[in-house]
DNA sequence: TAACGCATGTAATACGTTACATGATTCT
DNA sequence: AGAATCATGTAACGTATTACATGCGTTA
């Protein structure tokens, strides 16, 4: 049940409305987990029922701000430390990079160039968000973007450039 | 419908039984896509119905070997070239590496050391498989393991070592 | 005041996992 | 002969996507 723990983690980093959680899944967590609002709202209701999250405030437009309870924090900690991780992945981008070698070099290069453009744009966006976060001098919680420290984007860009070169 | 195209791609690399496809999902494709036999067999039936795959031979124990049809090859090519990729991912490992900063340094280090041990073991296994494949001098199709060329494992190992050091 | 973005929710459908079920072949 | 592995299939349940549905608050 990773969705549950993703939400607990995002809420522990900072309380949020369901709407804001949806945005954080798109921005912060997009290389790790994905969820839409139609999954998030029902899960928040279940978390409340289980005593793991609670509404700590109401705002305009019937919005409700959620936070993790002590039991929720405990559950998240338990999951991180004790639960054996599932190593399964579903990553359509990686699947395509794997299958692209079935194409003729010309077609392959075209596909890989589209991928390179995407990764470079995404990397630039993440860096801009990270810089913005640092400039605001926020402490505690997450940097908004997980990938900044991972080095994955540089690795992917280097790999794509190499494959494009070799398909020439 | 990535499952469909993952299967078409694996079959284009080499014909296989449903059972062998299940193994290839576990070994070759484990960092890109995951599927169990209970999903693979029904999908093969659908591919046959759609004229994208066909049975090209029967073996012992009622096994049936599947291959891609011309229409299937065309569909795979179309998907790779024309279909806009979905960038959504579900990767529990990445989620955990993101959330691990919510733990106290001691606990975090313990979790990250477990992760490092896992990644190093996986990397060694993948390299062994790749070496074996190269030694057999196979040509055409895939190397069995996608990750060998990607450089992701080195990047992940370096990141984990750095985080473990910083949590000290 | 109209359009846009914020904000929440549900229903139908599709996709994926777990568990159940069975039989064939090979190895010890 | 018995155990292990190969090999296929389905049913029940859980998870995720798409589409439908509604209303509030701000901005042009």
Description of the molecule:
Two copies of one chain form a homodimer. Chain A has a two-stranded antiparallel sheet. The model of chain A has no long low-confidence stretch (mean pLDDT 91). Chain A has two domains: 3-82, Winged helix-like DNA-binding domain superfamily/Winged helix DNA-binding domain (Arc Repressor Mutant, subunit A, Orthogonal Bundle); 92-166. The first copy, chain A, contains seven helices and three strands, in the order H-H-H-E-E-H-E-H-H-H. The longest helix of chain A is centred in the last third of the chain and has 31 residues, at 105-135. The radius of gyration of chain A is 19 Å and the shape is elongated. In chain A, 61% of the residues lie in helices and 8% in strands. By secondary structure, chain A is mainly α. The first copy, chain A, has helices spanning 2-13, 18-27, 37-49, 70-82, 92-99, 105-135, 152-166, and strands at 53-58, 64-68, 89-91. The structure holds a DNA duplex (28 and 28 nucleotides).
């Amino acid at each position: 049940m990773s969705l549950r723990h993703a939400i607990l983690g995002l809420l522990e980093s900072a309380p949020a409305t369901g709407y804001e959680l949806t945005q954080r899944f798109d921005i912060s967590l997009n290389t790790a987990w994905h969820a839409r609002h139609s999954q998030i709202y029902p899960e928040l209701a279940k978390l409340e029922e289980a005593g793991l999250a609670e509404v700590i405030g109401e705002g305009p437009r019937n919005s409700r701000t959620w936070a993790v309870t002590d039991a929720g924090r405990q559950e998240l900690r338990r999951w991180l430390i004790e639960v054996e991780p599932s190593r399964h992945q579903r990553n359509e981008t990686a699947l395509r990079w794997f299958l692209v070698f079935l194409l003729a070099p010309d077609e392959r290069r075209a596909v890989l160039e589209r991928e390179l453009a995407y990764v470079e744009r995404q990397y630039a966006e993440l860096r801009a968000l990270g810089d913005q976060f640092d400039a605001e001098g926020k402490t505690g919680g997450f940097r908004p973007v997980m990938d900044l420290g991972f080095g994955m984007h540089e690795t992917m860009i280097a790999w794509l450039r190499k494959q494009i070169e070799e398909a020439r």
